[in-house]
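User: Please fill in residues for this 408-position structure.
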C-alpha cells in the first residue's frame, strides 16, 4: 500500500474505503492489526487529499478506542500509532479526544487489585500476565508468589495501551500544532501528575512507558515553560535511571538525553545535582544497551568537561554511590565499584582526599559481598585506591588483605 500510494496519492481514499470494509467485517485480531497498520500509513497521505469527513473520523475513533482494549498487544500498539496518525490529520479536537480518553482510563486503571482465577493464575483486567521476565541484571529477591508476579512483570494492558496512545498523540501534536491551556500553551498539570505517578508504579512496563511519554512532552513544552518544569522532569528521570529493570533505565536514559539537549547550559547546570550521579553510574551498568547509550549521552552533553562537573558535584556523586552500594541489584553494586575506580584514577587526589574514609568503607563493604562479580569489581577498585592513598588505607590493611586472600 505504501509503495503504491507513493506514486499515486489519489488512490488513498479508495484504499481507505476498502480497509474500512475489512475492519468492520473481520473481527479476528490479525485483520484488525493489519487494518490499523494500513490506516496509520494512509491517514497522513490523506492530508494532501482534503483530509477526512467527520463521519469517517468518528468511525476510526471508534475502531481505535475498541482496539486499545484488545487482548493482543500488537493490536493495542497499532491502535496507539493509528491514533497519532488520526490526530495529525484531524487536529487539536482529535488530540483533545484521545488525551481526555487516556487520562480518564489512567485514572481508573492506575490502581487495581489481583483477580485470582480458579486455576490459581492471576488475571489483570481480564488478561493473563504477558511479557513476564526477570530482570536481565539479576537483581531482586526472586518471584515466588502471585503478588510478586503482579508487582513487576504482569502486563497491565490498559495502562500500557493508553500510555502508548499518549506518547503517539503527543509526538504528532508537537510537529503539528500547539497544545496545552486554552491559550494554546502551558503545561497539562493533570496529565503530568498522572505520568509522574506512573514513574513510581509498581509494574515495570508502566514505569518504562511513562518515561517514553515524558520524552514526548519535551517536544511540546519549550523555552521558559520547559525550564520551569525541568527540575520536576529531572527528578522523575533520575528515579528511572536508578530502576531495578534495565528496560526502565533505558527509557529514562532516552528522556535524560532529550532533556539535557533541550535545555540551555545555565538551566542544565541547575539539574546536575539530581542527574549527574545516576548518569555517571549508568556508564558502567551491566546491560550493554544502557551502558553504551549512557556513554554516548555523556559525550554529547559534557564533551571533555566531564571531570570538571564530577569534581564540582563530588559530594552528590559520592552520596549517590554510597546508596547504590547497598542496592538490591548486584549489577548496580558492581557498577558502583567500577565508578569508584574511575574516581580514584581520574579525579584530582586533593579534591578526593576528604572523601577517602567514605569510599574506603564502601569498597570494604562490597569486598565482602555475596556476589562474586561485585567482589571482583571491589578488588580492582581497592587496588587503585591503596595505590593512590596508601597512608589513609594503612589502618585497614589487615581487613583488605583478609578479603583479598578470600577472594583469591
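Assistant: Residues filled in for all 408 positions:
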Amino acid at each position: 500500500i505504501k509503495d503504491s500510494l507513493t506514486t499515486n496519492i489519489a488512490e488513498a481514499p479508495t484504499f481507505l474505503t476498502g480497509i474500512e470494509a475489512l475492519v468492520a467485517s473481520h473481527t479476528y485480531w490479525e485483520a484488525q492489526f493489519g487494518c490499523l497498520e494500513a490506516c496509520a500509513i494512509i491517514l497522513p497521505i490523506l492530508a494532501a487529499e482534503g483530509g477526512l469527513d467527520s463521519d469517517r473520523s468518528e468511525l476510526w475513533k471508534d475502531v481505535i478506542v475498541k482496539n486499545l482494549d484488545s487482548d493482543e498487544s500488537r493490536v493495542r500498539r497499532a491502535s496507539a500509532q493509528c491514533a497519532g496518525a488520526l490526530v495529525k490529520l484531524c487536529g487539536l479536537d482529535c488530540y483533545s479526544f484521545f488525551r481526555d480518553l487516556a487520562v480518564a482510563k489512567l485514572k481508573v486503571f492506575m490502581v487495581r487489585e489481583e483477580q485470582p482465577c480458579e486455576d490459581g493464575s492471576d488475571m489483570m483486567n481480564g488478561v493473563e500476565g504477558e511479557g513476564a521476565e526477570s530482570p536481565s541484571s539479576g537483581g531482586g529477591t526472586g518471584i515466588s508468589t502471585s503478588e510478586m508476579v503482579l508487582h513487576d512483570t504482569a502486563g497491565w494492558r490498559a495502562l500500557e495501551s493508553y500510555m502508548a496512545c499518549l506518547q503517539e498523540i503527543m509526538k504528532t501534536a508537537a510537529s503539528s500544532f500547539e497544545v496545552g491551556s486554552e491559550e494554546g500553551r502551558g503545561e497539562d498539570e493533570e496529565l503530568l501528575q498522572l505520568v509522574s505517578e506512573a514513574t513510581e508504579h509498581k509494574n515495570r512496563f508502566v514505569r518504562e512507558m511513562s518515561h517514553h511519554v515524558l520524552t514526548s512532552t519535551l517536544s511540546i513544552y519549550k523555552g521558559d515553560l520547559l525550564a520551569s518544569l525541568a527540575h520536576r522532569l529531572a527528578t522523575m528521570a533520575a528515579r528511572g535511571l536508578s530502576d531495578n529493570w534495565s528496560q526502565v533505565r533505558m527509557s529514562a536514559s532516552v528522556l535524560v538525553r532529550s532533556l539535557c539537549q533541550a535545555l540551555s547550559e545555565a538551566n542544565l547546570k541547575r539539574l546536575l545535582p539530581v542527574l549527574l550521579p545516576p548518569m555517571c553510574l549508568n556508564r558502567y551498568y551491566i546491560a550493554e544497551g544502557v551502558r553504551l547509550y549512557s556513554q554516548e549521552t555523556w559525550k554529547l552533553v559534557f564533551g571533555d568537561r566531564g571531570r570538571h562537573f564530577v569534581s564540582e558535584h563530588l559530594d552528590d556523586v559520592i552520596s549517590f554511590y554510597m546508596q547504590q552500594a547497598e542496592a538490591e541489584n548486584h549489577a548496580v553494586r558492581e557498577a558502583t565499584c567500577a565508578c569508584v575506580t574511575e574516581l580514584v584514577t581520574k579525579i584530582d587526589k586533593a579534591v578526593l582526599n576528604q572523601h577517602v574514609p567514605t569510599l574506603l568503607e564502601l569498597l570494604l563493604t562490597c569486598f565482602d559481598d555475596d556476589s562474586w562479580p561485585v567482589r571482583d569489581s571491589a578488588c580492582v577498585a581497592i587496588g587503585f585506591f591503596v595505590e593512590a592513598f596508601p597512608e589513609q588505607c594503612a589502618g585497614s590493611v589487615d581487613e583488605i588483605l583478609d578479603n583479598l586472600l578470600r577472594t583469591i
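For context: Confidence is low (pLDDT under 50) at residues 113-134, 136-146, 148-155, 181-185.
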